[in-house]
Design brief:
mainly alpha
């Protein structure tokens, strides 16, 4: 009994005197996760949160710029389409057709010159031959035909500095017509003409931004 008690007490003393496995001097940041850590969703979530906190340092934060050439061309296209249908302006809307042909984005041009665009132009031509079409609907049809039949030399100006300068001249002429014929700057932002004014400003500002 005495031997057993001595052995038990010795074992107890040995267990109590064992040092802990993790010493205070260990650096937990340098412990690489094992397969068990990656398999456990709780540990994996904690590791991901720690990694996010480490990545949130004082380094530079980069944002993708939404202002691209394609987006600006789409703004010109939508603004030109709005000016074709709106009635709050007295501009000569036929100038919108070459402007649209020069500023149309590449994806829209490829669609118009593709099978669907040609079929659309063909059906619109049939309707125009047998039915009356108002002037507001003729301008998109003419712009569609101009994009399809545009010569290669003029089509190469699209996206280049020469084409942007030509578009800027057309936009400046349309803005001059709009603000001079409407009478005053206050009337340009009335309820009946504010949409046309915003479209004119978009058409005039976008070529300036593209030149920068």
């Amino acid at each position: 009994m005495l031997t057993t008690a001595t052995t038990t007490s010795s074992s107890t003393l040995l267990l109590c005197s064992k040092k802990p496995i993790f010493h205070h001097s260990l650096n937990f940041h340098h412990i690489r996760p094992t397969n068990l850590h990656l398999f456990n969703p709780i540990i994996r979530g904690n590791l991901g949160m720690k990694q996010q906190k480490l990545n949130r340092g004082f380094g530079p934060v980069c944002f993708s710029a939404p202002v691209t050439t394609t987006n600006l061309q789409w703004i010109c296209t939508i603004s030109s389409a709005v000016l074709m249908f709106t009635k709050g302006t007295a501009i000569q809307k036929s100038f919108l057709v070459p402007f649209l042909a020069l500023q149309a984005p590449a994806s829209l041009v490829s669609w118009i010159k593709g099978e669907y665009g040609i079929w659309t132009a063909f059906l619109a031509l049939l309707v125009r031959l047998f039915f009356y079409i108002p002037g507001e609907l003729e301008l998109p049809f003419i712009a569609l035909l101009m994009v399809i039949l545009l010569p290669h030399q003029i089509a190469n100006l699209r996206g280049r500095q020469e084409g942007i300068v030509l578009s800027l001249v057309i936009a400046a002429f349309l803005a001059f017509q709009h603000f001079t014929r409407i009478g005053s700057l206050r009337r340009a932002f009335d309820q009946g003409s504010i949409i046309a004014t915003l479209a004119i400003l978009s058409v005039a500002i976008v070529p300036c931004v593209l030149l920068i």
